[in-house]
Structures are given as C-alpha cells and as structure tokens.
Amino acid sequence: ETDKFKEVKQQVQEGIHYIRKKQQERDEKLAKNGGSTAETIRMAGEIKDKIKEVEKQIGQMNEELRKQQKEKKKYPQAELDAKEKLYANCREQLGNLQMIEKGTADKAAQNIKTLTELRSDLLTSDNAAEIQAQQRQVDSQLSAEHEAALENFKKKDAELDAVISQIDEGLGNLKDKALVMGEQIDKQGILIKNLEDEVDKTNEQLVTA
Questions:
Q1: Reduced DSSP (H G I as helix, E B as strand, rest coil) percent helix, strand, coil of the chain, to 5
Q2: Residue 135, C-beta contacts closer than 8 angstroms, at least 6 positions apart
Q3: What is the distance between the alpha carbons of residues 120 and 24, in angstroms, rounded to a whole number?
Q4: Residue among 69, 87, 77 at smallest CA distance from 174
Q5: Reduced 3-state DSSP string for 65-122
Q6: Can you give the pTM of this predicted structure?
Q7: How far apart are CA 115 and CA 135, in angstroms?
Q8: 3-class DSSP state for residue 1?
Q9: Are 51 and 98 in contact (CB under 8 A)?
Q10: pLDDT digits (tens), the chain, 209 positions
Q11: Comparing C-alpha atoms, which of 67, 57, 119, 122 is closest to residue 93?
Q12: Computed from CA positions of residues 116, 120, 123, 128, in that sequence, does the dihedral angle turn out positive or negative?
C-alpha cells in the first residue's frame, strides 16, 4: 500500500526546488537587464502559479497526516512525529519563498518609480554618475538579500534530508523488529504444537491403562 503523505511530500519538494530555481533565474535577468522585461514578468507569473500549486499540495500533506494520526495502530508515533517535522519544514520553506517573491515585487515597484525620477534628473542635471552609483547600490542590495536567502534554503534542505533519513532508518528498524517477532511467534507455535502432542500421548496412555 502506497503512503499518500510521502507521494505528496515528494511533489512539494520538487515544487519548492522549481520555484527557487525560477526565482534565481528571474533575479539574474533582472540584474542583467537593469529592470523588468517581458520575459521576467512572464517568469514572475509562472512562479506565482507554482506557489499556489505547492500551497495546495502542502494542504494535502496536512490532511493526510491528520488521517494517519488517527490510525496509530498502523503508523508508529515516531514516524508520525517525523512526518510532522517534514510538514512544518515544507510549510516554512514555502513561506520563505513567498516572502522573497513579495519582496521582489515591492522592489520592482520601487525601481519603476526610481527609474522615472532618474530620467527626470538626467534631463535637468549632470549628475548621471551619482545616479548610476545609486542604481548599482540597489542591485547590490538585491543580490545580497538573495544570497542570504539561498544560504537559508541550503540549510533547510540539509535539515529536511536529515529528517527523511531518520524516517527511513526508523522504518528499517520497525521492519527488522517485525521479522524477529515473526520468527519468535513461529518458534512458539512449534513449542505449543509439541506440547499438544505430548498431552495427547499422555491422555492416550491414561485411557489404555
């Protein structure tokens, strides 16, 4: 029987990876072009749609986890605790991506206003060098923010991998214990059968005596 939680979790992780990659590609193009283009606007739309899709999948993770928590005989508590951490981790990562996307949108709006002001300044003064320096400072700030975000994502990925490893290890231990218990039950069954045979022989001896 397939584990629906694990299936949806895999889709969520792939979606988060896709969003992160698209954001990085979009931000590189923004920095290269000095502002929004038709391509970066299209990429922003794709990122927004993917965020909505992953948000829905995380909701499915939560629903499936709550179902499994009601079947404690089928799912060990250690496995449920690990899945709870996975769910929280995925939700946090998506939240970080949403914050980055909102920040990028806000920066884009600010940059549109800044470019308008720059054009006006260029027409009325000779401070082009100062304006260019200010624009480079804005670009540098955006790059620093995204570098910090990428480092945070790498850290979360490592934590997620550790949780998944714990789940796999726990399931392996449970399987080993189940095999040992099965062997013990088989041995006890043989002992009980032998005991029953001895009792039958004793009864026969008492009857014939």
A1: 90, 0, 10
A2: 34, 114, 118
A3: 31
A4: 77
A5: HHHHHCCCCCCCHHHHHHHHHHHHHHHHHHHHHHHHHHHHHHHHHHHHHHHHHHHHHH
A6: 0.53
A7: 9
A8: coil
A9: yes
A10: 789 999 999 999 999 999 999 999 999 999 998 888 999 999 999 999 999 999 999 999 999 999 999 998 899 999 999 999 999 999 999 999 999 988 876 665 555 444 455 455 555 555 556 656 666 776 676 666 667 766 776 777 677 667 667 766 776 776 677 677 778 777 877 877 777 787 777 777 777 76
A11: 57
A12: negative
Indicate left, alpha or beta for 35 from its phi (over 0: left) and psi (-120 to 50: alpha).
Answer: left
Residue type, 104: T
**Single-letter amino acid, residue 30:** L
Residue with tokens 């992953």: 54
Q: Which amino acid is at 117?
A: E
- Counting every residue, how long is the chain? 209
Confirm if 44 and 107 have CB atoms less than 8 A apart: no
